[in-house]
Amino acid sequence: MARPLLVLLLLLGGCRAAPANRVLPQRSPGEAYVFDFDHGVPVIREGRRTLLRDERAPFRKDPEVYWLWDAGGRLWIYVAPENAVYYYERTPEGWRRRVWTGERSTRPERDLLPPPGLYPPCPTSK
User: Fold this and answer.
1) Cα separation values, 26 from 3, 11, 107, Å
2) Which of 4, 88, 89, 94 could be stapled to 75 by a disulfide with Cβ–Cβ 3.0 to 4.6 Å?
């Protein structure tokens, strides 16, 4: 009796959904854009049309890279080994990658902040 229960627990444990900051392809809030990696290179598409293929990005797909869209339609990337945060935003000239420094202004209500859930959970001690 214990063996079927063990098999069931192993199957259920392996079927957990990926956290939101690791889902690929990932749709923007309005679902107009899709983020993915193509051979490790970050890509943003609209339908079948590639709007951005960032060959010069300082990161590639990796288990320690996390991504998430914010409510404003910006795509945020957190690179854990470097503790670096980037974001892509749509401009009249197309999508642009920016470095987020975390600096605060005198008007905090205007400060740009990463979306909740971008960072991975802190490791727990056993």
Assistant:
1) 38, 25, 31
2) 88
Per domain, the residue ranges of the chain are: 19-110
Among residues 46, 36, 24, 57, which one has the least CA distance to residue 90?
46
Neighbours of 67 (CB within 10 A): 24
**85 vs 124: CA distance, rounded Å:** 23
Angle at alpha carbon of residue 49, lines to 43 and 54, rounded to 5°: 25
Peptide bond into 25 cis (omega under 30): yes
- 8 three-state secondary structure: helix
pLDDT confidence band for 6 (50 / 70 / 90): very low
How would residue 26 be classed by pLDDT, with cut points 50, 70 and 90? very high
**Roughly how many angstroms between the first and final C-alpha of the chain, as a whole number?**
29
